[in-house]
Design goal:
A 7-stranded mixed beta sheet has the order 10-9-8-11-12-13-14, sandwiched between helices. The chain has helices at residues 18-28, 72-88, 117-128, 157-167, 182-192, 236-247, 266-272, 301-313, and strands at residues 9-13, 38-39, 45-46, 57-61, 93-98, 132-136, 151-154, 172-176, 195-202, 212-217, 224-232, 252-260, 277-281, 295-298. Helix 1 crosses helix 8 (301-313) and helix 2 (72-88) packs parallel to helix 3 (117-128). Helix 5 (182-192) links the parallel strand 8 (172-176) and strand 9 (195-202). With 327 residues, it is of the alpha/beta class. The protein folds into 2 domains: 9-155 and 301-326, Rossmann fold (3-Layer(aba) Sandwich); 157-298, 3-Layer(aba) Sandwich (Rossmann fold), CATH 3.40.50.2020. It is 29% helix and 23% strand. The chain contains 8 helices and 14 strands.
């Protein structure tokens, strides 16, 4: 007896960022599945898929962000439970889609007696039943090695670069906010045929969310500067960098980042910062109270949709980015 099997694509999403999942489903011309998540009185949650996923290629998406309804830990746990449900329902392959990967900054031991939580999160996804992982602009490339299976590392650079080409209007200087992001800034500069600069910064030992910009390396006097980073969290690093650039004679400062986390005092800091425009993508939901005139949100849905389609069709994800997603 011969049996010709047919692959079936199924996309589900947790509740942390349904708007992005719906946009991705629209790009793929598929219907977003309903996981039917039920919340119990004690805070526990239980999904139950309303259709069979036996033998399916299942993509379960959740951005690891806190919202008014759930914490970042709730978001991760919800995705893990949904993956476990699909695994126990005999899905053929389960891919964890994490546009913003939680705990990514805890990727090493910077001091004694610290956890490496980024590795722990990867282990949890493997234990739940995920065979593959997809994420966007991880804080450090080494996180790809934490997951025991294929990891497709996407980048928002094409979206951000297209915006710069269409809107900058003048010859910019691409600025790395610290030494660790120089390679990313250099790639932006090469695509734009622009000059490069970076900020030398320090963090006081034992103090979280505190950054001190010490010096600018590069010529920024009278120039339009664009700071490029992977995320804006409390905005301490970004604001310190912008102030340092202005002190060194920059005519104007923009900021671009993939993940607009914008925690705690971020919005107040950005309102008062010498930054003309802040461009982020929608990997993390931006609530209405954080939507200020300076901030412009670009959609990453097309990039993620193209990657999901490539994984489903077993074609190259790297080709979408010309191989630069691995750099």
């Amino acid at each position: 007896m011969e049996l010709v099997t047919k692959k079936r694509f199924v996309l589900y999403s947790g509740r942390a960022h349904l708007a992005l999942a719906e946009e991705i489903a629209e790009h793929l011309h598929v219907e977003l599945g309903n996981p039917n998540v039920q919340d119990f009185a004690n805070g526990e949650m239980r999904p139950r898929f309303g259709e069979s996923v036996r033998g399916c290629d299942v993509f379960i998406m959740q951005t690891h962000a806190g919202t008014s309804e759930m914490s970042i830990n709730d978001a991760i746990m919800e995705q893990l439970i949904m993956i476990d449900a699909a695994h126990r329902a005999s899905a053929k392959r389960i891919t964890a889609v994490c546009p913003f990967y939680g705990y990514a900054r805890q990727d090493r031991k910077a001091e004694g007696r610290e956890p490496i939580t980024a590795k722990l999160v990867a282990d949890l996804f493997k234990a739940a039943g995920a065979k593959r992982m997809i994420s966007v602009d991880l804080h450090s490339g080494q996180i790809q090695g934490f997951f025991d299976g294929p990891v497709d590392h996407l980048t928002a650079a094409p979206v951000l670069l297209d915006y710069l080409k269409e809107n900058s209007g003048i010859d910019p200087v691409i600025v790395s906010p610290d030494a660790g992001r120089i390679k990313v800034a250099e790639r932006f500069a090469q695509h734009l045929d622009a000059d490069l600069a970076f900020i030398y910064k320090t963090r006081p030992k034992g103090m979280a969310n505190v950054a001190v910009a010490r010096e600018v390396i590069g010529d920024v006097e009278g120039r339009h500067c664009v700071i490029v980073d992977d995320m804006i969290d409390t905005a301490a690093t970004l604001v310190a960098a912008a102030e340092c650039l202005i002190e060194h004679g920059a005519a104007d400062v923009w900021a671009m980042a993939t993940h607009g986390v914008l925690s705690g005092p971020a919005i107040d800091r950005l309102k008062n910062a010498p930054i003309g425009r802040i461009v982020i993508t929608n990997t993390v939901p931006l609530p209405s109270e954080k939507q200020i005139d300076k901030i412009e949100v670009l959609s990453i849905a097309g990039v993620i949709a193209a990657a999901l389609d490539a994984v489903f069709e077993d074609t190259s994800v790297s080709q979408i980015f010309g191989g630069e997603n691995q750099a």
